Amino acid sequence: MRVPLLDLREQYAALAAPIRAQIDEVLATQNFILGPKVDALEEAVAGYCRSPHAIGVSSGTDALLAVFMALGFGPGDAVLTSDYSFFATGGCIARVGATPVFVDIDPVTCNISPTALERYLGESCHRHEDGSLRGPNGETLRAIVPVHLYGLCCEMEAICRIGEQFRLPIIEDAAQALGAEYPFRGASAKAGTMGAAGTFSFYPSKNLGAAGDAGMIVCQDKAFAERLRHCRQHGMEPRYYHHFIGGNFRLDEIQAAILQVKLPHLDEWSAARRRAADIYREEFTRLNLTDSITLPVEPFRDRGLTNHHIYHQYVIRTPQREALREHLTRREIGTAIYYPLALHEQECFRYLGHGAGEFPEAGRAARETLALPMYPELAREAQRYVAEAIAEFLNQGATT
Ligand SMILES: Cc1ncc(COP(=O)(O)O)c(C=O)c1O
User: Fold this and answer.
1) pLDDT tens string 75-115
2) DSSP 107-149
3) Which one of 18, 35, 146, 354 is most buried, by most CB atoms within 10 A?
4) Residue closest to 171 by CA, chosen among 24, 318, 73
5) Is the Cβ atom of 175 under 6 angstroms away from ligand 1?
6) In ligand 1, which atom is closest to the CA atom of 338?
7) Ligand 1 center from residue 60 Cα (angstroms)
8) Residue range 222-239, pLDDT digits in tens
9) pLDDT digit string (tens) for 297-340?
10) CATH: 3.40.50.2300, 1.20.140.10, 1.25.10.10, 3.90.1150.10. Which one for 265-395?
11) Which residues pair with 201 in a beta bridge?
12) Under DSSP, is residue 314 helix (H, G, I), strand (E, B) or coil?
């Protein structure tokens, strides 16, 4: 049996007619950039996330970049983030000229460790006489960027408390977590809405995927939302008057129109992903594999939240990751490694001077994590086949 990591065709087939009608409508108007479809998508995403403002942009990467540019981050600044994320999180900090300050992860969730964050701020930083918070090399700390990896929210209660204590805004990289909920201050909050701003990616393989690149920013403050709208058009307002340097971070109408058709289905897709995660757990338990591989955790499952995890990725851990992956490839099962290096291990960040093993949990996650097939339409038989292939590998003594 062939089981791909991700298969988008069934989802598209179910929505092909309304998607094509929307594309035709845009083509008929010849209005391609930042038009009524973008406005409508922004309103729909703001409503879905229960956020006062949403700003459509060209990708999840540009969402981060626009936020950092709009906040004026630059040389001499430093921004704290998880050492284990997609490159864009650290890359965008560096692109604006600031220094990425990596923080190790919680080994259980793979999300940024609040303990490590607090330790770094408490032990390595000091308050300068001008009131700013300074790092060990004198750089000014400007923000904390937690990343809700794999569709599970970070420990936002602790992170926001640390943010308040050290007077640092929180920018949530929610690229993988649109719709994920967290039990925040006695209620449920959606990923992206607990800090000053949150960023999303609609890359085609994301849980809400466009037919190309697209992204969104949500934020709490009206004036900041306005600044972001200017930032996505080169800091321009009115036309051809530029108050600050932004970029071309515009979202196009066709992507917005497609996303608007798909958004109302997102919660049912997330529920199907959670069901698939339950089936994996059942199968791994039935096959007695739960001592040999580490399954993803659901720390907020019994907290009264619907989308306590949205399983953007289903990621297991094993020290035999490479051999298991080879075995699954031979069985025609798609897998992926998100991510094979921690950010501090990337060659382009060598200039930061981190030693090997400096963030041990991120380094270990990079060597042990393996994403298994996960998408809403994944069939139970396919999951059983995946689980049995893993059992076959482990029962044969992990030699092949
Ligand atoms: C955590 C994280 N941040 C940022 C991005 C960047 O999003 P995009 O690919 O839309 O630029 C991604 C996309 O994979 C991501 O997973």
Assistant:
1) 999 999 999 999 999 999 999 999 999 999 999 999 999 99
2) TTT-SBPHHHHHHHHHHH-EE-TTS-EE-TTSPEEEEEE-B-G
3) 146
4) 73
5) yes
6) 16
7) 5
8) 999 999 999 999 999 999
9) 999 999 999 999 999 999 999 999 999 999 999 999 999 999 99
10) 3.90.1150.10
11) 215
12) strand
CB of 85 shorter than 6 A to ligand 1: yes
Instruction: Output the pTM of the full model.
Output: 0.98
Residue-wise over 167-193: b if at least 16 C-beta within 10 A, else e?
ebbbbbbbbbbbbbbbbbeeebbbbbb
Q: Is 22 in the pocket of ligand 1 (CB under 6 A)?
A: no
Amino acid code (one letter) for 151: G
Residues 6 or more apart in contact with residue 390 via CB below 8 angstroms: 284, 287, 289, 293, 324, 328
Q: Where in the chain is the domain with CATH 3.40.640.10?
A: 9-264
Give the span between the Cα atoms of 83 and 101, in whole angstroms. Answer: 8
* Per-residue pLDDT at 396: 85
Instruction: Name the segment(s) of the chain with CATH classification 3.90.1150.10.
Output: 265-395
User: Phi, psi (5° rounding) for residue 77?
Assistant: -100, 160
Rounded Cα–Cα distance for residues 310 and 266 (Å):
10
Our mutation pick for probing the ligand 1 site, out of 64, 82, 176, counting the most ligand atoms within 8 A of Cβ, is 176
CA of 64 to the centre of ligand 1 (A): 9
Task: Assess whether the C-beta atom of 151 lies below 6 angstroms from ligand 1.
Answer: no
Q: Which residues of the chain have pLDDT under 70?
A: 397-400
Structure tokens at 14: 């179910």
Tokens, residue 92:
């965008």
Residues 55, 197 contacting (CB under 8 angstroms): no
What is the dotted CATH code of the domain comprising 9-264? 3.40.640.10
Does ligand 1 lie within 6 Å of residue 60's CB atom?
yes
* Closest ligand 1 atom to Cα of 215: 10
Q: Please report the atom of ligand 1 found closest to the CA of residue 201.
A: 10
CA distance 308 to 277: 12
The pLDDT score that the predictor gives to residue 397 is: 67
Q: How far is the CA of 44 from the centre of ligand 1 (A)?
A: 21
What distance in angstroms lies between residue 335's CA and the mean position of ligand 1's atoms?
19
What's the sign of the alpha-carbon dihedral 328, 294, 107, 216? positive
